[in-house]
Structure formats: C-alpha cells, structure tokens
C-alpha cells in the first residue's frame, strides 16, 4: 500500500531506506559518502521519530479531551536508557530497519552503539519512572512525565587501578535527535526575595511574593512509544535559562558582564544531576532544581487544563499527579500558591483540589535518606512557600488535635516541621498530609512504612495507604535486551506475552518438562553468556569462560546492598582452594557492576575491594580458572541490557528491611536467572510467585534483625566463633589482596567487627551454606534449567503494566483505555 512506502511515515524497507537518505540530505546536509557513523545514527533516529508523530497527534487529542484524565508523573529522575532500539521494537520496525540499513551498506548494531544513553537518574527510582512511562503509553493512558533536562546526567565510571574515576556525562555533545524544543511553552520561575501584603483591585487583603531572581524554564519533549499501538507518552524535561526581561535590561543599562553572569547562574539550575547519598553538599542548588521543574510542570498542567475550556475548580478532574518520592513534594505548596495567590482561589477550595490531585510514592525507609530542609535556608529560597507550609501545617495539626485531644506528642511527631534541634521541613510529612494516597513499592515495604516512618500517619489515615509493588517493562528488559529468549518464547507461545505478560507468560510453565525445550533454553543462555564474555574481554581485558556459573550482582554500590558479603563468599571459596588445590568446586564467574556516589568513601572502598580480590584470585595458578572475578565498569541501562540476559544467579542480598523493593531482581528473574536473596523488598513476592523451592533464600528476617539489635548485636562474636569467617576476614586484614597497602581495608573490616550496621557477619554462615547448595544444584543442569524456565513463567506479576493498572485503579482513579 502507498502509506507503507511513504518516505515520511511508511514502514516498508524501501520507505525507511529513503527516509534515512532524505534525512542525511535534508536534515544533516551531508553527502552520503562523507557521512560518519553518527550522521547515519542521527538520520535513522529522525527516521524513527517521524514515525511517532502520527501517534503523537492522537495523544494531543487525548490531552485536549476534557473527558480524559491525564497522569502527570513528577520525578527528579528519568533513567530512560537508549531510545533507538526500544523505539524500533515498540514501533514494530526492527527487522525492516535492519534490512534498510543493510541496503545502505551499514550495520544496525553499529548505529545502535552510537547512541549516548540519557542517564538522567541514579538507579532504581529513575529507572522505575522510565518503565512506567513505557507502560502508561502501552496501556493508552495519556501521560506527561515531568523532570529536568540535566545537561550532565549520572557520571560515567571508569576503573583505574581498581578504583572508580568519575567522568562528566556529556550526553548532549553530539545533539539529541529524540527531543523537540518547545520554547513557546516556556515558563518563568521565581526565587528568593520576600512577601508582602497588598490590597487587590476589589479591596481585599492579599499576599504577593517579590522575588529577587527570575529564571525561565524551557521544555523539551521526547515521545515514548507504546508497544505496537498508535499512542505515545510525552516526557517533558525542563532546561533552565536566563530571562530576557525588559526590567532587567532597564535596571542594568550597560552592565553587560552582569547580564552574562545572570545567564550563567540561571543555566546552572539544570546543569547536573545529583548523585544520591550526598545529603550535605550543594543543597541550595538541589532545592532550586526541585522547585524549578515542579513549578514549570504545574504551570504547564494548569495551561493544559484551561485550554480544555474548564475552570480551575475542576483541575483535579484533568490531572492526577504522582510524586516520585519527596523530590517533587514542594509541588504541594506550589499548587496552593498558584491557586490561591495567582488565581485568587479560596484556601479551602484550593486545598480540596490539591488533596485530590496529588499522591506520593515512598521509596526508602532509611532515615538518612528522608528529605529534610532546614527552615531558614528554605525560607531564604522560597519565602512564600514557607508561609504556605506553615498554614498547611497549622490547619493539619488542628485536625490532629481534634482527632486526639491533648496528645501533644502525636501532634509534634506528625508535624511537617521538625522542631527538634535544627528546625526543618520533613518533606515526607508534607507529601503525606497533602496526598490522597501514599504508596510503598513492595508489600513488605508498605507494611514497614506504615509501622515505622509513617506510623502516626497510618494511625490517623489508614485508608490513604496502599501498596503498589514495582514492576519492569518486558519490552525493554526481555524483547529488546534478550532477542534470543524472546524468539524462543514466541516459537512456543506466540507474542501476546509482550503486552499481556500477566496472563500469557505462565503458558511456558508446562514446557519446563520438555527436554527439547530445555535444550533450546540452555542454548539461549549459553549464547547470551558468550556475548557477555566477549564484552567483558573488550571492557576489562578479562577472559571469562561461558561454561562457568555466571553469578551476578549489579546495582548501585551501598553498604546495605552488601556487595562485600558477596566478596566474603569469594574469599571463603579462595581459602578452600588454597587449603585443597584439587578441590572439586563448581566453577564460577563473579560479575559485579555499579556506581558509588562520589562522596561515599565506604562504597568506593568496596569497589576497590572487589577489584583487588579479583586481581589476586584471577591470577593465582592454584585457582586454575575455577574462580573469576570481574568488575564491569560503568553499569548503566545499555550495559544492563547485555548483563541481565547472561546471568544465571542473581544476587539480591540486602539486609532485611533495607531495600524498599529492588527492580533488578525482577529483570534477572525474567531472563531466567535464579535468585539468591534475603526476605527483603520485592524478593518476598518473587519467592512466593516462583515458588519457595525455586528460590534460594537465606538470612535473617526483618523481625530477627530487630530482635538481634534489641538483644545487643556483637558482630565480633560471629568472627570469633566461626573459623571459616575468621579465616576470610583475617586474609583481608593481612594485606594478601592489597600488598601495596596492607591496611587498605581496615576501615571496612573494623566497621564489620565493631558495628556491622548491616549485619553481614550475622548472615555470613547462612549465605555460605546457601551458596554451597547452589553450587551443588548447578551440577544438575536439567534441574537448574527447569527452575529457570519456571522462574520466567511465574514472573507475570512483575510487569510494570500490572503496576500501572494498579496505580490507575487504586490511586489515580482512571479507567479508560487500561
Ligand atoms: C536526595 C537528596 C539529594 C540528592 C539526591 C537524593 C536522592 C536521589 C536519588 C535520593 C535517593 C535517590 C534514589 C533512590 C532510589 O533509587 N531508591 C530505589 O527505588 C527503587 C524503585 O522504587 C527501589 O526498587 C529500590 O529498592 C530503592 O532503593
């Protein structure tokens, strides 16, 4: 048909080829013979983007339709990963594009490799937002993801001499073909200054904010394609710029350098993504970033609502706004300010709307990670918002006192303002007072949330609490990253599982009993391991054997995630081999990956530990290839797509109660890895789903952890009473792995022996025993493969499509399309 061959939108091989050549000429002004690999990548990206504009118009219509509720997903992070491969899959043009590119004498894989991934997030929270954008689009829910267009995303990691070296992430260096610049939708954002009373034209006393800085937010839109559906989601990211205000020019006549200075300061706001775990540094900029994108987002949503021809009192019928953790929680005060100050609405009416609009997702119970802003500092940057928060708090505490007269303890525990010591604003309280729903990200996490951090809120508002267990998108994490597995699944059960994962994927379960299918399954995994081995060689120089057990821990480096417990297992095996060089053990390749926050010294020392242990173990002739340890540098979405499909054992070994959910655990299982894990986060639900017999469980439960703290935890006792543990710890103390600096790991080891806040020593023996069982189980490949198939078959619940359906039903009150 003619439309198939249209060079702007057709999906035939000829149309795609023509479109690429057209873009080389009309968009890039390049001669094909002179075009670089990047030129071809950009031409292809434009070609693919063209094929989303038709879908985009459908979404614009949905957004303009006053009957349809729109999701505004507010997140300081969106860890999208590369767009090209995902778009080819979702648009259904992967094969034709590969052919078209081949006809031009190019290889699609080279063009895919050319894309710099937008790393606009730290880890789980940012990647969750990206999976949710995919599912929202695929389910046909009109959605705008609002965030910051950081000029520099998460740093890229190099490993030099076994240590992390951070490099700035210049992802925009060669331009970004996926985004549409929308200067006509710019917003202005104010900072600082003071507030004052005034009489409006109707003679009423009102408040206005007289800021001392104004900047401009300019949106850039990126389409997020649905899977095989003419729909997209819009990721709207804001860049900060200087305003070109007349006032400003008038007040600064001739002051050219001051004007340039203003421009630099204004552009700083969206300059760089903050790594987590660095609570103390650069605070002002972090708060300015949060307020900046939140204010732009709300102004934008109000604009959309008014375009629908509706009055502001129905704003909550147009938008459901999700706060991805407390990073955007200032939105509560900003919406109140916009409604009351700017749009002259009555406080109570504005509050009703605000309460109906917002809901809040909590992602952590770690007290050090709960956001708090010191009052004077907050008031200096956002004086009007401080007043509004006081008013919200005043009215809220009155309600609390009515609810529990005389209980001053309760009121002070619930207060948005923390009065103890340095007075500060508890952002989780602000979000909880305003949100009509508060959700945790796994069943266990939601339960602990309502018993610990938000206990008093749960006592007075139990109905606000809901659980929505995280999920991940099978499009990126299976179809795109594991084409071999996707092909095998398709040959067995067709392709409906891709967007009906919950209903369809379990259909492969019976095939676990089919020996021929198990053989195919093993061939797929073997192929993925060989591919990863090649990449490991290229990136690290290490040779790894694809016939060994691939034991993988990839995630941010943090003490609570206990990468060093994994290292204690490696050292234990190493000691066993040294004692008995002929020991018959299951050969393993230990693969680690993950970034440490630049200011987190202990996490950086763990990276050095992994590399130093690896250097000695990998070189020791006694080990004779039975153990290999590699640290895969710069773990990010792109690298993750190569790693998860090759994994056989997934390490999910956080101290019980510390990992809110985890999402890597789901990606591994969906790709046929078995899990060794604690009863933490979503591990609990994964184990229930795949069956306890198909999951390697070890370690203390949350209750046992609390109990042990209560009784008085003495880590040194475990060291003294366990010879195997003592031997491992002593070898690390001895400098065996750090001959150039004997005491290198003393800070880490002393922490373990004296405090051990994450109870590694308490869990050590259970972990080792469990690993020994795994080593034995791996020797029965038929049985292992059976379990692997059953793991995939029973992962239906962990598609982000299921999560988004639950958000729509229990939180956003959206029915259509889903
Ligand atoms: C806060 C203040 C200042 C600077 C940075 C931050 C900051 C930034 C990012 C704090 C935390 C984060 C990220 C948190 C995160 O990724 N949490 C993870 O969220 C996942 C999705 O719900 C869960 O699966 C993980 O368990 C949780 O650790």
Automatic annotation (TrEMBL):
Cofactor: pyridoxal 5'-phosphate
Entry annotated with the keyword Iron: no
Annotated EC: 2.4.1.1
GO CC aspect terms: cytoplasm
EC main group: transferase
Keywords annotated in UniProt: Carbohydrate metabolism, Glycogen metabolism, Glycosyltransferase, Pyridoxal phosphate, Transferase
Catalytic activity: [(1->4)-alpha-D-glucosyl](n) + phosphate = [(1->4)-alpha-D-glucosyl](n-1) + alpha-D-glucose 1-phosphate
GO biological process, one term: glycogen catabolic process
Presence of the UniProt keyword Glycosyltransferase in the record: yes
Coiled coil: none
Source species, domain of life: Bacteria
GO molecular function: glycogen phosphorylase activity; pyridoxal phosphate binding
Residue numbers bearing the N6-(pyridoxal phosphate)lysine modification: 667
Role of this protein: Phosphorylase is an important allosteric enzyme in carbohydrate metabolism. Enzymes from different sources differ in their regulatory mechanisms and in their natural substrates. However, all known phosphorylases share catalytic and structural properties. Allosteric enzyme that catalyzes the rate-limiting step in glycogen catabolism, the phosphorolytic cleavage of glycogen to produce glucose-1-phosphate, and plays a central role in maintaining cellular and organismal glucose homeostasis.
Family from the record: Belongs to the glycogen phosphorylase family.
Protein name: Alpha-1,4 glucan phosphorylase
């Amino acid at each position: 048909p003619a439309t198939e061959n249209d060079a702007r939108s057709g999906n035939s091989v000829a149309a795609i080829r023509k479109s690429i050549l057209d873009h080389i000429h009309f968009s890039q002004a390049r001669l094909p013979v002179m075009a670089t690999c990047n030129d071809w990548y950009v031409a292809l990206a434009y070609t693919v983007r063209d094929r989303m504009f038709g879908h985009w118009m459908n979404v614009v219509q949905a957004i303009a339709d006053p009957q349809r509720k729109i999701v505004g997903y507010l997140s300081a992070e969106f860890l999208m990963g590369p767009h090209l491969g995902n778009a080819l899959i979702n648009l259904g043009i992967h094969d034709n594009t590969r052919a078209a590119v081949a006809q031009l004498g190019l290889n699609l894989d080279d063009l895919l490799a050319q894309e710099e991934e937008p790393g606009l997030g730290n880890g789980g929270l940012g990647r969750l937002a990206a999976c949710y954008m995919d599912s929202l689009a695929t389910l046909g829910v009109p959605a705008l993801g609002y965030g910051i267009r950081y000029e520099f995303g998460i740093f890229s990691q190099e490993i030099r001499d076994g240590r992390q070296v951070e490099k700035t992430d210049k992802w925009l260096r060669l331009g970004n073909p996926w985004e549409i610049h929308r200067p006509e939708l710019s917003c202005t954002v104010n900072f600082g200054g003071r507030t004052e009373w005034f009489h409006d034209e109707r003679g009423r006393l009102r408040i206005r904010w007289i800021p001392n800085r104004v900047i401009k937010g300019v949106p850039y839109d990126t389409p997020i394609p649905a899977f095989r559906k003419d729909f997209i989601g819009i990721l709207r990211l804001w860049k900060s710029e200087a305003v070109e205000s007349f006032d400003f020019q008038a007040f600064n006549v001739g002051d050219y350098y001051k004007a340039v200075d203003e421009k630099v300061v204004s552009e700083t706001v969206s300059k760089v993504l903050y790594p987590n775990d660095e609570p103390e540094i650069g605070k002002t900029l972090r708060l300015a970033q949060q307020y900046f994108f939140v204010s732009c987002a709300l102004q934008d949503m109000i604009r959309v609502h008014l375009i629908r021809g509706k009055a502001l009192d129905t704003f909550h019928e147009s938008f459901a706004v999700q706060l991805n953790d407390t990073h955007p929680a200032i939105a509560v005060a900003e919406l109140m300010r916009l409604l009351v100050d700017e749009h002259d609405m009555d406080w109570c009416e504005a509050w009703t709307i605000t309460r109906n609009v917002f809901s809040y997702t909590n992602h952590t119970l770690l007290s050090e990670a709960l956001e708090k802003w010191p009052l004077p500092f907050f008031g200096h940057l956002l004086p009007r918002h401080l007043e509004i928060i006081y008013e919200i708090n005043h009215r809220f505490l009155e309600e609390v006192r009515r609810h529990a007269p005389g209980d001053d303890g309760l009121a002070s525990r619930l207060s948005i303002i923390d009065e103890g010591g340095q007075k500060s604003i508890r952002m989780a309280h602000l979000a909880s007072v305003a949100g009509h729903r508060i959700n945790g990200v796994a069943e266990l996490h939601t339960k602990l949330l309502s018993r610990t951090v938000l206990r008093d809120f749960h006592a007075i508002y139990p109905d606000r609490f809901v659980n929505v267990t995280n999920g991940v998108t099978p499009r990126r994490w299976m179809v795109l990253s594991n084409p071999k597995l996707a092909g095998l699944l398709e040959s067995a059960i067709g392709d409906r599982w891709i967007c009906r994962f919950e209903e369809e994927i379990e259909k492969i379960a019976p095939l676990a009993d089919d020996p021929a299918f198990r053989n195919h399954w093993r061939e797929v995994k073997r192929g993925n391991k060989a591919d990863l081995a090649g990449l490991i060689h290229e990136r690290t120089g290490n040779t790894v054997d694809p016939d060994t057990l691939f034991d993988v821990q990839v995630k941010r480096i943090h003490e609570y995630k206990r990468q060093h417990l994994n290292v204690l297992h490696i050292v234990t095996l190493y000691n066993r081999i040294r004692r008995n060089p002929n020991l018959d053990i299951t050969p393993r390749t230990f693969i680690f990956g993950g970034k440490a926050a630049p200011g987190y010294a202990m996490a950086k020392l763990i990276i050095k530990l992994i590399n130093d242990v690896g250097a000695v173990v990998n070189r020791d002739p006694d080990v004779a290839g039975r153990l290999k340890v590699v640290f895969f540098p710069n773990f990010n979405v792109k690298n993750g797509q190569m790693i998860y499909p090759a994994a056989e054992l997934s390490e999910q070994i956080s101290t019980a109660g510390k990992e809110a959910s985890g999402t890597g655990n789901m990606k591994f299982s969906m790709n046929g890895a078995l899990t060794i894990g604690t009863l933490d986060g979503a591990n609990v639900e994964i184990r229930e789903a795949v069956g306890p017999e198909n999951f390697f469980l070890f370690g203390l439960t949350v209750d046992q952890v609390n109990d042990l703290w209560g009784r008085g935890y003495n880590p040194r006792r475990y060291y003294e009473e366990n010879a195997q543990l003592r031997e491992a710890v002593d070898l690390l103390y001895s400098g065996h792995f750090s001959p150039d600096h004997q005491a290198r790991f003393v800070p880490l080891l002393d922490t373990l022996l004296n405090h051990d806040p994450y109870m590694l020593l308490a869990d050590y023996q259970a972990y080792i025993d469990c690993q020994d069982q795994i080593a034995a189980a791996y020797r029965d490949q038929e049985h292992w493969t059976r379990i692997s198939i059953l793991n995939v078959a029973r992962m239906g619940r962990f598609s982000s499509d299921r999560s988004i359906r639950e958000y729509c039903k229990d939180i956003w009150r959206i029915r259509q399309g889903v």
